[in-house]
Each structure stands twice: as structure tokens, then as C-alpha cells.
Specification:
Helices cover 35% and strands 17% of the residues. The protein is α/β, with parallel strands linked by helices. It folds into two domains: 200 residues, NAD(P)-binding Rossmann-like Domain (Rossmann fold); 96 residues, UDP-galactose 4-epimerase, domain 1. The strands form four sheets. The chain has a seven-stranded parallel beta sheet, with helices on both faces. The chain has a three-stranded mixed beta sheet with strand order 8-13-14. The longest helix is centred in the N-terminal third of the chain and has 22 residues. It is globular, with a radius of gyration of 19 Å. The chain starts with 10 loop residues before the first strand and ends with a strand. Bound molecules: nicotinamide-adenine-dinucleotide (NAD) and uridine-5'-diphosphate. Nicotinamide-adenine-dinucleotide binds next to α1, α4 and β5.
Length: 340
């Protein structure tokens, strides 16, 4: 059956480790005494995210695309698979590669985990629930996904990755854990990443109009990055495999208009709000039921939206290039309506 596991794994691979979540996870693993190998193709991650770690004696970096088989000389104890663009404009830019990253990439990392008898944690997503008809979302909900729409490369790719993971688990080939992550934000999101929190903060700091897609009545539940990283590590650490996916997110739900107002209040130079077209298949409501994570791991997010936004705004204020031109690459197109 599945191999035993040490509570503090010695050597950990973080695939997608140069990204937003992956780089924070690498920080925390190093702080806990692990040896960390970060693997990334820099599709949406950056060298800046891991630059402070490059001289750490327990850190190493491998530039690699998980769609290609992964071979590493070192014996691994644990693998976190975070490799995949997470922002809708980014994952839709090359949808076939996104799908292959989730399916072939996860297959390659499962093979690596099996060879090493390593535990694997798969970063899945609330997007497996699609535009949910059940609210809040519990893990036993099968979801409402458009399998032919523009989000399908991500949603269906992550669903297929979960299916692969569960087949490896049922066959006792790899001890797999699945975290279904809900919207998470914080320092090190790319300023032109296109997701709501980074877009609003960067636009407000630059005094540009803040873009709300559709009416802004759609909701999300925002988890601060340190809370999420703690949850991922707790899920990796428990000895009994949960045998089921585990939702991870902050159950406090906000409309996009409420979020924009909070950001606007926090940034004095913030401009007007403008509305732009709602992307196809944009989920209308999203909130995790985290009963399972609370019961299994004793895990509950602690950072409020106000606290998390303050820390994120502070980070963007310090790191945004002063004389930069507007970062509008991943913002929705024209037809804007200005709202005072
Ligand atoms: P991110 O885009 O900042 O990080 C993804 C990282 O994966 C980047 O460094 C990117 O370069 C790398 N990557 C992408 N494709 C790759 C490939 N084929 N081979 C190697 N590396 C590749 O996004 P994030 O927010 O840090 O998300 C990390 C993971 O968590 C993703 O798998 C994402 O689906 C999942 N997730 C995140 C959120 C969130 O709100 N942040 C929500 C749900 C799920
Ligand atoms: N959104 C928005 N303005 C933006 C970026 C996003 O109104 O500049 C909306 C988007 O349409 C969605 C919500 O904010 O309803 C969250 O979008 P994000 O891309 O952050 O994540 P996801 O849709 O994957 O939850």
C-alpha cells in the first residue's frame, strides 16, 4: 500500500514554484527546514518571486515545463503541483497548453511521485464547480461546467487532473491529496495578471478607472495567501489520506462591487469605476463550504479581507514601477460605462 511519510518532509518539489502561491509556499517550506526544489517554466511566474531564495542553501530551481516528463536526481518526499496559469486571461491565452498542463503535467508529476514514493498535493480549484447551482459549494457537489466554453481548458483540465489523481490513489500508486482552492490573493500577484484583486489595486494606485465586468453583483470569497499556504501544508501533513477533495478558501463572500468599494476607500488616488462586458461563463456566485477542512485539519482562514487588502496594497505600492505605463494587458476590452 502507500508508503509511510515523515511529518516534516525533507525534500519537497514545488511545481509552479515561481508563481504567486508557489513562491509563498516555497518560503514557508524553507522556513520549516525543508529542502525545496522549485520547478517552473515562467509562463506566468517570475524570477523576482524567487530571487530572494536563490542563495538559500536548501533551495534550487529547475526551469522546466511539466508537459514534458520530469526526472530529478534527488529523492523526493513530497510534491506540490501548482503548475498552471490561474488567471482567466492567462489560461485562455493558450488554452491547449493549459489543458495539457493539467492533464499531461499532472500525469508526469504523478509518475514522479510514484517513482519516489512521495506524497502529491494537487492544486485544484473552485472552478471544478463551474457556475455553481449549489451555494455554498461543498465537495460532494459535482458542479455545473460548460465543457465547450472558453473556461473549459482550465475547468475541465483541473477536473481531469482530479480524476487522474483519484485513479492513482485508488490503485494505491500515489498518496494524493486534492485542495480545491477558492480565489486567493496577496503580494506577488503579477500586476498585469488580470485577476480582480490585482487589477483593482493596480488601477487604483495608478489613478486609472477601476474595471468591473458586468454589473459587479457576482460574488467571490477571497482568501489571503498566508492562510491558504497554511491550509495546503496542513493537508499535505496529515497522515490519514482524506480520500476526498478538500475545499480551501475564505467563506466570507463579497460582491465585486463591494470589493471595488473597499479598494477605492483604501487608496486615496483611486479613480472612477467603469463597467465592462462580463466574460463568457463568468460564475455568478462562489463561496466555499470549509466544514471538511475545519474538521480534518482544524484549519480556518484568519486574515480578514480588510487586513489582506491592506498588506497587498502596501506591497503593490512598494513594488509597482513608478514611471510605468498603464498595465492594461489583461483588462477587458472597450464598451465601458463610467459610474461615479
Ligand atoms: P500563477 O499563475 O501565479 O502560478 C502558476 C505557476 O505555474 C507560474 O509560476 C507558471 O509559470 C507555472 N506554470 C504554468 N504552466 C506551467 C507548466 N506547463 N510547466 C511548469 N510551470 C508552469 O497562479 P497561482 O495563483 O499561484 O496558482 C497556483 C496554482 O493554484 C495553480 O495550479 C492554480 O490553478 C491553483 N489555484 C489558484 C487559485 C488562486 O486564487 N490563486 C485558485 C484556484 C486554484
Ligand atoms: N473581474 C472584474 N474586473 C476585473 C477582473 C475581474 O470585474 O478587472 C471580475 C470577473 O469577471 C469575475 C471576478 O471579478 O466575476 C473574479 O475574477 P478573477 O479573474 O479574479 O477570478 P475568477 O473569475 O477565476 O474567479
Amino acid at each position: 500500500m502507500l508508503q509511510g511519510y515523515e511529518r516534516a518532509p525533507r525534500t519537497v518539489l514545488v511545481a509552479g514554484g515561481a508563481g504567486f502561491l508557489g513562491s509563498h509556499l516555497a518560503d514557508e517550506l524553507l522556513a520549516q527546514g525543508c529542502r525545496v526544489i522549485c520547478l517552473d517554466n515562467f509562463l506566468t511566474g517570475s524570477m523576482e518571486n524567487i530571487a530572494p531564495l536563490l542563495n538559500h542553501p536548501a533551495f534550487s530551481f529547475v526551469k522546466h515545463d511539466v508537459c514534458d516528463p520530469v526526472f530529478l536526481p534527488e529523492k523526493l518526499d513530497a510534491i506540490y503541483n501548482l503548475a498552471c496559469a490561474a488567471s482567466p486571461p492567462n489560461y485562455q491565452a493558450d488554452p491547449i497548453h493549459t489543458m495539457m498542463t493539467s492533464v499531461i503535467g499532472t500525469r508526469n508529476l504523478l509518475a514522479l511521485a510514484e517513482t519516489n514514493s512521495a506524497r502529491l498535493l494537487q492544486a485544484s480549484t473552485s472552478e471544478v464547480y463551474g457556475d455553481p447551482e449549489q451555494h455554498p459549494q461543498r465537495e460532494d457537489y459535482w458542479g455545473h461546467v460548460n465543457c465547450t466554453g472558453p473556461r473549459a481548458c482550465y475547468d475541465e483540465g483541473k477536473r481531469a487532473a482530479e480524476a487522474l489523481c483519484f485513479d492513482f490513489l485508488r490503485l494505491s500508486r500515489v498518496d494524493v491529496r486534492i485542495a480545491r482552492i477558492f480565489n486567493t490573493y496577496g503580494p506577488r500577484m503579477q500586476p498585469d495578471d488580470g485577476r480582480i484583486v490585482s487589477n483593482l489595486i493596480v488601477q487604483a494606485l495608478q489613478g486609472r478607472p477601476m474595471t468591473i465586468y458586468g454589473s459587479g453583483a457576482q460574488t467571490r470569497s477571497f482568501c489571503y495567501v498566508t492562510d491558504l499556504v497554511g491550509g495546503l501544508m496542513a493537508l499535505m501533513a496529515i497522515d490519514d489520506n482524506p480520500g476526498q477533495p478538500v475545499n480551501m478558501g475564505n467563506p466570507q463572500e463579497f460582491s465585486i462591487c463591494e470589493l471595488a468599494e473597499q479598494v477605492r476607500r483604501a487608496i486615496p488616488q483611486a479613480g472612477d469605476i467603469i463597467h465592462r462586458p462580463l466574460p463568457t461563463d463568468d460564475p455568478r456566485r462562489r463561496r466555499p463550504d470549509i466544514t471538511k477542512a475545519q474538521a480534518l485539519l482544524g484549519w480556518t482562514p484568519k486574515v480578514s479581507l480588510a487586513q489582506g487588502l491592506e498588506a497587498t496594497i502596501d506591497w503593490f505600492t512598494r513594488t509597482l514601477p513608478r514611471a510605468s505605463s498603464p498595465l492594461a494587458r489583461n483588462e477587458q476590452g472597450p464598451d465601458a460605462l463610467i459610474c461615479k
